[in-house]
Amino acid sequence: MSAIPEIIHQHADPASTRDTVLTLLVRHGEATASALAAHLAMSVQVVRRHLRGLEDDGLVEASPSAEGPGRPRNYWRLTAKGQGQFPDGSDHFALGLLQSLAVNLPPETLQRLLEQQAIQQADAYRHRIGAGSLQERLEQLVDLRRQEGYLAECSQDAANPQAWMLSEFHCSVMRIAEQFPCICDQELQLIRHTFPDCQVDRVQWRLEKGHSCGFRLTPCRDD
Length: 223
Fold this sequence. Notes:
Blueprint (H helix, E strand, L loop, with lengths): L13 H15 L4 H8 L3 H13 L3 E6 L7 E6 L1 H4 L6 H15 L2 H23 L4 H14 L3 E7 L2 E11 L3 H6 L2 H13 L3 E7 L8 E7 L4
Helix pairs in contact: 2-3, 6-9
């Protein structure tokens, strides 16, 4: 791996060190803890502690790489959530695209496009969450949604132990949904297509002044 160029940073500020680590990883794709430590003029142990903190926050991940005899070396890279720490203008692009589509297409055509996108995304989700229990699949989906910038969690429904609640307290497409509420309908369809063995109902909606978007998933009975 090529040498990492100098980036101005403040060693005394942990937040600044974390930002510098993220910046280095976004510029170079991946790096070992020792390479980062050499740049930061810190011990490898301190840098690893920062990396573990970033990993706990879902911003970075490591993959081992065998390079001859001895223990594999971990190469660190940003997760999708980590990439999201850097402004990319995608929400402005998405808003502009939807505005153009809304002007130039009949409403039913736009709705069909959004429904098709939900079906395709649900197919990808089902492939990644596997075929475990409803709880296991929901937990996998929560992890995926967190990587996409959502603050999500799942829990059993207090009123019905057979049902589960999926709550999203932060929505990565909130700005878009405020102008195009149909995006929220797409999200509901996405959850329904991801869990075809469940009845999925929206029970809370941020656009209706809720503090989160909430979905109740009730397993369908086999008659």
